[in-house]
Input
Amino acid sequence: MAVVARGRRLAPAATAARKPFDWRGAVGKALIYLVLAALAVVFIAPFVWMVSASLQDVSDMFRWPPQWIPRSPDLGNFALFFQQANIGRLFFNSAYVAVTVTLFQLFTASLAAYTFAKRRFPGRDALFLLTLGTMMIPGQVTLIPTYIILKNIPFFGGNDWLGQGGHGWLDSYWGLIVPQGASAFAIFLLRQYMTTVPNDLLDAARIDGASEFRIYAQIVMPLCRPALAALAIFSFSFQWDNFYWPLVIVSSEALRTLPLGLALFVVRNRTVWDLLMAGSVVATLPVVIVFLLFQKHFVRGIAMSGLK
Output
């Protein structure tokens, strides 16, 4: 029995021995943190130098050793960058396409994920495996068929009812948004999360007379906020940085997105590195801000999406 001495409770003699310190585990954790810190420096250093270079003059930018902290930081590079032609239009196009595609994917992917996770019908699992199989097809393989389909959309871009005579959805917001509105990865991510929603909760709603769409909208979707936040970050980041698809279908200057406009800006101003660094920082900030705002939900959504 434990004994009491001077108002304090003493541990029994049988448990008085202390647990030996685990040196092997401590060394292992120290090595893991050291490797993670080194990798963090490797990945963060280019971004830090880009931010530092955007605040310096060209003469100081390439000084050796590198000036990680500007001696006299100046925001003039950003002012000159925004004075370039059509910068505001580039930002609007990128924001409009990225936000619209993100909302489109959230809606279509959540509907498909709910069907695969909570509805039963013949061939459901085979159809889901077929959907996952499309993730193994490189985008370059479907590029030409998608281009031809968009070119022959009837009644758009000067086309007749047979899809002939015009350019269809090429060089238009329709062509930038609609082909990106569905994603097999988005369906997979949300489906894995929705499988964790208890079926008893849905059955109770059905007994109360709720329709399937009401169950999807008022019960399943609020419970899937972490996964939706993770998908929104993935989709917005990809669409904001998307360069390949706008390069293929956009020919007019009014529809160029920010990555495409920056690439052409680099071609026209190869030696204006101060403005290029300022433009790169500005182009990166929206993605960083979105991630910081939804970081908590993003981590939780990724962690929970792999549970069964």
Notes: DSSP finds 15 helices and two strands in the chain. The CA atoms of residues 114 and 216 lie 7 Å apart.
